[in-house]
Specification:
Strands 7-6-5-8-9 form a 5-stranded parallel β-sheet, covered by helices on one side. A 4-stranded parallel β-sheet has the order 2-1-3-4. The radius of gyration is 19 Å and the shape is globular. It is of the alpha/beta class and about 290 residues long. About 35% of the residues lie in helices and about 15% in strands. It has 2 domains: about 5-125 and about 275-290, Rossmann fold (3-Layer(aba) Sandwich), CATH 3.40.50.1370; about 130-270, 3-Layer(aba) Sandwich (Rossmann fold). It has helices at about 10-25, 50-60, 80-90, 105-110, 130-140, 160-170, 225-235, 235-240, 260-265, 270-290, and strands spanning about 40-45, 65-70, 95-100, 115-120, 150-155, 175-180, 195, 205-210, 245-250. The structure holds N-carbamoyl-L-aspartate. The site of N-carbamoyl-L-aspartate has 11 residues, from α2 and α6.
Length: about 290
Amino acid sequence: MQHLIRTADFTKEEIIELFDEAKDYLDMQSRDTLKGKIIVTLFFENSTRTRSAFEIAAKRLGAEVVSLDVGTSSTKKGETIFDTVANINAMKPDAIIMRHSDCGLPGTLVNHVDCPIINAGDGKHAHPTQALLDLFTIREHFNHETEGKKVAIVGDVRTSRVAGSNRRLLPRFGMEVCFVAPDCFKAEHNEHKQYDNISEIIDEIDVVMSLRTQLERHNEIYFESLNDYAKDYCITSETFGDRDILLLHPGPVNRNVDISDEMLKDPRNKILEQVTNGVAVRMAILRKLIMQ
Ligand code: NCD
């Protein structure tokens, strides 16, 4: 049985096949492919896009979705997450989609279940479906020619699982990833070039992936206000000028902190396209893992 815990769980060939299938799903028609299947979502952290995209993807394929309300679930009564999952598994669902603040937790559960587990974000570690939909969006934009493209991930790289998954996935498709962040948000490893200011590399890059400052994952307060951060890291029309750069963001966007109002209206930003692609890519992932 195959699970999706990190992007490395899929080979390059499998990813390309998934994307070919996802392209068909962009018509957003409802299908019977997963009719009679039941998918459980277990979200222990907030989510708007990821959870609803998974639920819509499942329903578009004809599956039923059971969304466990973790606020009222038995983990609040002292049950361990392992026991909660063992009980859900005993009800024989066809897949479990999970988001949790503990890095690595979905990966440790795979040996305790009889159905695929899909990681919808585990702490600062990984967010494989987000990285896959980001790659899909970039690949479509460049007509599949991703070799040599330069991607700058801007913002809170240190705590972002989106950065964590993308920095591993995009180089497998020939892209070069660098980070732009203030010292407090820089990555703790040196596997990618890191810059203090986007102006240092703006003329070389093809894609900017802006990130939200994940204040909830930091123990210290680094900025008096987010405006201090925004002065240097908010993507504005001055940052981009008339350059032909693709602008992405996983959401939720903090307006005028991550990206200016003006750039949110600019056709170079494909943020809502990412959201639509996220449904299609997740449909392909659900079909692959459940019908394997
Ligand atoms: C991200 C997440 O939760 O990891 N959002 C998302 O899934 N689209 C990023 C964030 O919360 O900033």
